[in-house]
C-alpha cells in the first residue's frame, strides 16, 4: 500500500489482536521496526526527530500528546519515525480528528443548490476539527489498550533507552516491530479495478466497499415484495444514524454523535407503538436507522436511490415529512433546537408543512423540563441524513439537535466521545446488574426527548390530540440501552432480547459494540451493532407469539402468518427463578434489514461525485513485538565473524576433500595375521 486517495480508507484495518488497534497508516510488508522512545512532552520530540543517534524510532505517547501538531511534526520527519503507539489515558478538554465541515461534498449544500451555504460558509459545524483522521502517514499508528503491556514496554525503555544527560544508554537497546501491511493502493478506482482483474480460481480482493444494513420498521407494515409507489399512502420518516468513527475505528463509540440519537428514537418507537395500536392514523410512520452516515451518507443515500428506482416499498412521493434525531445529549441549557432547510422552505407548501411540524414539536413538550427552539431561517441544516433526501426533492423536515450553531460535542468522531462524555456515572457500590437498572440523569433527559418525539410523530401521523399526553417513553428502557450501548453490551437485558442463533457474537465481550460501519459482506451478514438495534426494535415494537422455534423459522407454513408483511425472530428470553433454561419465544415484527451500500458500487462509478466511494483495504494480520537490538558495530562484528567462520569452514572442507585419500587411507593387514 503506497498511499490514500480520495474516498478510500487505506490504512484502516482495525482487526483486533491481543492489545492493538490500527488506524490510518502505511506500513511495509515485512513490518516496521524502530528503537522505542517514550514521549513525555512535546519538547522530547527533538530526540527522535533530530538528535537521537539510532533512528528510526518507535514513538510511544499518551493520548494527551496525540495532537495534530505533534503528529504532523513526525509525519514531516517520517524517515526518522518507524511508527507511533498511542496509550489512551485521560480526556483532553477537546479533540476532534474529523474535519470542520463533516460530509462537506455529499450533502445538499452544493454550488448549484445554494452557493452561499456550500462548504459551511455560514456555519462551521465542527470548529474543533483538525482533520487528523484524513491525513496520510507513512508509518503505522497503533493504539495500545492494556495497562500491563504498556508498563512492560515502558520498563524496557527505561532499562535500555532512557536518555540521560543528553545521551542514550549503551547497547542493547529496546526496539519494537509493528506488522500492519495492507494491500490497497492509491484510491478506490484503482483498487477496485485491480480486484476485478484477478482471474484466478481464488481471486484476491485488495479492498472492499464500506457498507452494511439499515434497520427499518413501519408502524403499519407493507408487503416487502411490492416495491414502488403506494397509492393513497403518506409516510412520516423518523430517522437517526447508527455509526460513528474515530482515528482508531474500533475505539469509536459515538456516545453523543450517534448513540444519543438512535437510543432516543428507539425509546420513542416503543412509546409510540403502544399508542398507535389503540388509535387510528391517517399516515404511516417509518423508523429508519441509517448505517454508514459518517462516510458520506452511505445508508441514507442508498435508501433515496432505492426509492427513486422503485427498489423500496415506498417512493419519494409517499414521503410526507422527515423528523431526524441528531446529537441531543449534551445540552447547555433547557433548550433543544429545531433545524430546517432555508432553501426548500422558499416553497410555500414545504414552508407550511415545516411550520406545522415545528408547532407539533413545540406543543409536545408540555409537562417536560425542556423546550424546542427554532433556529434562524437563514441557517442551513447541520450534517444529517435528511440532506440526502433534499438532494432528490423538496421534502418538509426538521433535524433535532442540542446545538444552535456549531456542535456542543467537544469530541466529535473521536474515541473520547464515550460514556464519560455523557456523564454516565454509577455509584461505586453497585454491581453490573444494579448499574443496568440505575436511571442516570442522562437517561432521564433523553427519556423526555423521546417522549416529545413520540408525541410529535403521533400528531404528524394524524393521531387524536386527546391521546397525546398519554404517550410517555420509559426511563428504565433508556437507561438500559445507554448502559448496553456505551458501557457493557454483554448484560442480562441484551441477552434476554437477543437471539441464541444469530447474535451470540454481539454479546461476546463486556465492552460496548463497535460503531464503525465495516465492509459490505457478500454473505448478507450484518455487524453486531445492526443486529442489536434490530432485535431491540423488534422487541420494543413487535408482538410475542406462541410459535415454536421451528414454526418461527418457517411461519409461511401457517395460515395466519406472512413473511411478506412481517419478520419472525427467535428471542432467548429470561431464565425463570429456580431454573437454568431460558423461556425463549418468537417475535412477530415489522423490522427489516435493508441494504446500506453506496449505489456507486452497483453502478461501477468508482469516481462518483454523487455517492460515497469509501473502501477499506484488505490486510493479512496485525501484530507487534518488542525485543533488544545490539549496536551496529556489534552486528557488523558478528557478521564479520560469521563470514570468517564460513570461509574458514569452506577452506577446511576443500582441503579435507582434496586430501581425503591421504587423510582417510587405511593400512592393509598381512594375509597370515594371527589372532
TrEMBL record:
It is found in: Membrane. One of its GO terms (cellular component) is plasma membrane. Its main location: membrane. The chain crosses the membrane at residues 636-656. Residues 26-184 form the Nicastrin small lobe domain. Keywords: Glycoprotein, Membrane, Notch signaling pathway, Signal, Transmembrane, Transmembrane helix. It is a single-pass type I membrane protein. InterPro entries: Ncstrn_small, Nicastrin. GO terms for biological process: Notch receptor processing; Notch signaling pathway; protein processing. Belongs to the nicastrin family. This is Nicastrin. It comes from Oncorhynchus kisutch (Coho salmon).
Amino acid at each position: 500500500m503506497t498511499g490514500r486517495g480520495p474516498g478510500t480508507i487505506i490504512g484502516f484495518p482495525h482487526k483486533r489482536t491481543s492489545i492493538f488497534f490500527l488506524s490510518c497508516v502505511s506500513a511495509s510488508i515485512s513490518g516496521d521496526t524502530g528503537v522505542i522512545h517514550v514521549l513525555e512532552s512535546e519538547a522530547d520530540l527533538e530526540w527522535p526527530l533530530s538528535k537521537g543517534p539510532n533512528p528510526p524510532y518507535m514513538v510511544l505517547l499518551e493520548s494527551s500528546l496525540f495532537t495534530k501538531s505533534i503528529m504532523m511534526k513526525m509525519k514531516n520527519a517520517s524517515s526518522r519515525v518507524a511508527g507511533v503507539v498511542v496509550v489512551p489515558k485521560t480526556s483532553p478538554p477537546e479533540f476532534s480528528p474529523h474535519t470542520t465541515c463533516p460530509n462537506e461534498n455529499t450533502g445538499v449544500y452544493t454550488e448549484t443548490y445554494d452557493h452561499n451555504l456550500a462548504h459551511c460558509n455560514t456555519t462551521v459545524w465542527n470548529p474543533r476539527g483538525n482533520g487528523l483522521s484524513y491525513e496520510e502517514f507513512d508509518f503505522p499508528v497503533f493504539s495500545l489498550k492494556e495497562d500491563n503491556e504498556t508498563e512492560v514496554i515502558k520498563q524496557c525503555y527505561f532499562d535500555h533507552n532512557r536518555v540521560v544527560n543528553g545521551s542514550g544508554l549503551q547497547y542493547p537497546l529496546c526496539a519494537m516491530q509493528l506488522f500492519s501491511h495492507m494491500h490497497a493502493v492509491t484510491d478506490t478506482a484503482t483498487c477496485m479495478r485491480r480486484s476485478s482483474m484477478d482471474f484466478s480460481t481464488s481471486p484476491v480482493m485488495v479492498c472492499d466497499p464500506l457498507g452494511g444494513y439499515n434497520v427499518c420498521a413501519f408502524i403499519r407494515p407493507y408487503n416487502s415484495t411490492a416495491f414502488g409507489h403506494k397509492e393513497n399512502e403518506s409516510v412520516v420518516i423518523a430517522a437517526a444514524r447508527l455509526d460513528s468513527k474515530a482515528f482508531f475505528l474500533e475505539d469509536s463509540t459515538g456516545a453523543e454523535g450517534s448513540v444519543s440519537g438512535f437510543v432516543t428514537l428507539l425509546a420513542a418507537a416503543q412509546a409510540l407503538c403502544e399508542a398507535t395500536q389503540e388509535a387510528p392514523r391517517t399516515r404511516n410512520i417509518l423508523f429508519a436507522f441509517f448505517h454508514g452516515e459518517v462516510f458520506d451518507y452511505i445508508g441514507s443515500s442508498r435508501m433515496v436511490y432505492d426509492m427513486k428506482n422503485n427498489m423500496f416499498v415506498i417512493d419519494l412521493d409517499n414521503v410526507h415529512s422527515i423528523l431526524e434525531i441528531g446529537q441531543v445529549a449534551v445540552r447547555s441549557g433547557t433548550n433543544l433546537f429545531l433545524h430546517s432547510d432555508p432553501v426548500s422552505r422558499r416553497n410555500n407548501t414545504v414552508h407550511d408543512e415545516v411550520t406545522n411540524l415545528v408547532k407539533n414539536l413545540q406543543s409536545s413538550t408540555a409537562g417536560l423540563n425542556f423546550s424546542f427552539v427554532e433556529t434562524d431561517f437563514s441557517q442551513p441544516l447541520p450534517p444529517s441524513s435528511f440532506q440526502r433526501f433534499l438532494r432528490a426533492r423538496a421534502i418538509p423536515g426538521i433535524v433535532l439537535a442540542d446545538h444552535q450553531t456549531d456542535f456542543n460535542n467537544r469530541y466529535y468522531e473521536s474515541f473520547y466521545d464515550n460514556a464519560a462524555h455523557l456523564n454516565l456515572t454509577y455509584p461505586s457500590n453497585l454491581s453490573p446488574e444494579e448499574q443496568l437498572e440505575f436511571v442516570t440523569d442522562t437517561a432521564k433527559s433523553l427519556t423526555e426527548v423521546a417522549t416529545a418525539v413520540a408525541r410529535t410523530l403521533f400528531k404528524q401521523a394524524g393521531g387524536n390530540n386527546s391521546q397525546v399526553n398519554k404517550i410517555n417513553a420509559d426511563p428504565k428502557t433508556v437507561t438500559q440501552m445507554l448502559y448496553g450501548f456505551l458501557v457493557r453490551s454483554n448484560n442480562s437485558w441484551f441477552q434476554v432480547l437477543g437471539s441464541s442463533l444469530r447474535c451470540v457474537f454481539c454479546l461476546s465481550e463486556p465492552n460496548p459494540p463497535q460503531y464503525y460501519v465495516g465492509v459490505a459482506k457478500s454473505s448478507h451478514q450484518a455487524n453486531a451493532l445492526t443486529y442489536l438495534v434490530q432485535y431491540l426494535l423488534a422487541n420494543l415494537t413487535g408482538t410475542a407469539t406462541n410459535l415454536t422455534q421451528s414454526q418461527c423459522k418457517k411461519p409461511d407454513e401457517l395460515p395466519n402468518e406472512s413473511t411478506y408483511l412481517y419478520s419472525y425472530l427467535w428471542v432467548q428470553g429470561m431464565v425463570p427463578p429456580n431454573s437454568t433454561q431460558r423461556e425463549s419465544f418468537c417475535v412477530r415484527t415489522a423490522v427489516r434489514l435493508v441494504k446500506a451500500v453506496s449505489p456507486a458500487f452497483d453502478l461501477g462509478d468508482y469516481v462518483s461525485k454523487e455517492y460515497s466511494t469509501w473502501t477499506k483495504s484488505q490486510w493479512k494480520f496485525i501484530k507487534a513485538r518488542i525485543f533488544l537490538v545490539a549496536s551496529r558495530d556489534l552486528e557488523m562484528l558478528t557478521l564479520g565473524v560469521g563470514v570468517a567462520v564460513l570461509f574458514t569452514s569452506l577452506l577446511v572442507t576443500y582441503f579435507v576433500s582434496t586430501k581425503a585419500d591421504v587423510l582417510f587411507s587405511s593400512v592393509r593387514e598381512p594375509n597370515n595375521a594371527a589372532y
